[in-house]
Amino acid sequence: MARRRVPRWLAANLLLLPAGFWLAVFLLVPLALVVEYSFATRDTGPLRVVLPWTTRAYRTALDPAFLPIFGRTLTYAGLTALACLLLGFPLAWFIARHAGRFRTALLAAVLVPFWASYLARIYAWKALLDGEGLVNRLLGLVGLDRDGGFLLTDGAVILGLTYGFLPFMVLPLYVACERFDYRLVEASYDLGHGRVSTFFRVVLPGVWPGVLAGSLLVLVPAAGDFVTPKLLGGVDQSTFGSVIDDQFRGGNNWPLGSAMAVLLLLLVVVVLMLRGRRGEDVL
Amino acid sequence: MSQTVTTREPATRPARRRTGRPWALIVAVCLVFGFLYAPIVWLALVSFNDSRTVSRFTGFSTHWYAELVQDERVIAALGLTLRIALSSAVVCTIVGTLAAFGLRRTFRGRGLWTVVLTLPLVVPEVVMGVSLLAFFVKLAGIPLGFWALLAAHVAFSLSFVVVVVRSRLAGMDTRLQEAAADLGAGPLTAFRTVTLPLVAPAIAAGSAFAFLLSFDDVVISSYLTGVGSTTLPVFVYGQASKRGVSPEIVALSTAMVGVSALLLLIGVAVVTWRARRVGRRVDLTVAG
């Protein structure tokens, strides 16, 4: 071991330097800039005009006028997480317990749509939910169709978000289900518990870390996403993400957009702290 | 709790436990997979539809694809998207692999590095997008377009390469390098003949994911495309949000899903094949 001339810490830091440099310049500095902007007065010029400092953007963002958007975003994110849980649990449980040698293949099958162009898949829903779309015409066969289709509804946005972020739920749930000791279920049956009681008293507490990790992994992107609310929803479906987007895209009000971006970041920090170190291994 | 339940008759329980296949569960799983794949299948079918309207199927045709190939905007966008995805994958692979090796052993400050390197995974895309827009336009004065897009794509893809390569390194038996050293291999030879072949699949997978992330990105790119330099997903997003559903965009979306899925499958195949060859399974869940 005498051949090692470079101390370990120095070697490690040298190897990490390029990545650190890149992330410092193209992630940390821009984020700091957004924090700075969030305290700026309205910026109209082509260059950086930030003074004088003010908390006006935050007061606007937390104004009662924006409360419906907060509420809607949290409702969408919460319902999306719930829907992902309801759809994802059978999937995760099945893959972990019954899939046998098809386990890897089925997990890959969950992952493929996740990696294959989110935008294109949401676009497919836009076409499907349209007034002339397949969903509406199929529902028309049983008289459940809706004039103008299902676009521009809360349901459409929640459906799109659920569709987009389901894999985020399935993966941690799968890990939790795989670790779950099935003998506990048998013990529960032997002690006379029924299926429902066993599920709520034994299975659910057993896989709870996975439920928690999955929900948080779904909540964060669902709260920040603007592609789905913009493509499947309308003005009445604008969320946190789409309002931030509006402030920057139209050049409307960068300080307000920045303040909302900082609030979204704070939400992420809170979520990460809730998740703690416990869920980290499931990522 | 147990006292109350022992009073129930346990006679029916064993029968319930032995019920062969969980049919209800299988049906539920099929429905969920249907939900995941039906829109993609539908998209692909409609893209070959002859009709202008996507709601009626009138016949098989490839002319929407033919029209795409002739559309200069699409070809230009595709060219830019591929150039950025390739460049980003190359930079991410080199920088990310170095970083993964840097994190291999413990040293003071490793925790902080880990936090910084996983940061891009948790920052919401919209926040990263607007912050980079502010950075390039107001602070750096770099014009939007290729270089801005490349810088951003490397920033959000880098972590994936680090995570994938790092998990492979962590699962590696360090005794192999010691054995190589015992057999007289110098550090460089040991790296080249032992370490590198073992981590190569993870590096390949990492670069494939970096390419895919860049190829598919719409949120962050949508803030950074310059005049006359649009990536394919941003072009699709613009068309999709401006107009209704058009068969050209359906065909383009199908092609994008197809390319992404193909790349992913190639990546997974390479990883599992190489991993089997060296007698180890790589945990696929890392990819998520």
TrEMBL record, chain A:
InterPro entries reported in the protein's UniProt record: MetI-like, MetI-like_sf
Transmembrane segments: 12-35, 74-96, 105-124, 156-177, 198-223, 254-274
Membrane protein topology class: Multi-pass membrane protein
Gene Ontology annotations for the cellular component aspect, listed alphabetically: plasma membrane
Residue intervals of the ABC transmembrane type-1 domain: 70-275
CDD domains: TM_PBP2
Annotated localization: Cell membrane
GO BP annotations listed: transmembrane transport
Pfam families: BPD_transp_1
Keyword tags: Cell membrane, Membrane, Transmembrane, Transmembrane helix, Transport
Family: Belongs to the binding-protein-dependent transport system permease family. CysTW subfamily.
UniProt xrefs under PANTHER family: INNER MEMBRANE ABC TRANSPORTER PERMEASE PROTEIN YDCU-RELATED, INNER MEMBRANE ABC TRANSPORTER PERMEASE PROTEIN YDCU-RELATED-RELATED
Protein name: ABC transporter permease
Source organism (scientific name): Longimycelium tulufanense
Origin organism lineage: Bacteria, Bacillati, Actinomycetota, Actinomycetes, Pseudonocardiales
TrEMBL record, chain B:
TM annotation in the entry: 23-45, 74-100, 112-136, 142-165, 194-215, 249-271
Coarse class of the protein's main subcellular location: membrane
SUPFAM superfamilies per record: MetI-like (SSF161098)
Keywords noted in UniProt: Cell membrane, Membrane, Transmembrane, Transmembrane helix, Transport
Keyword Transcription regulation included in the entry's annotation: no
Any one biological process term the GO annotation gives: transmembrane transport
Entry GO CC: plasma membrane
Family per similarity comment: Belongs to the binding-protein-dependent transport system permease family. CysTW subfamily.
Protein name: Ornithine carbamoyltransferase
Organism of this sequence: Longimycelium tulufanense
Lineage: Bacteria, Bacillati, Actinomycetota, Actinomycetes, Pseudonocardiales
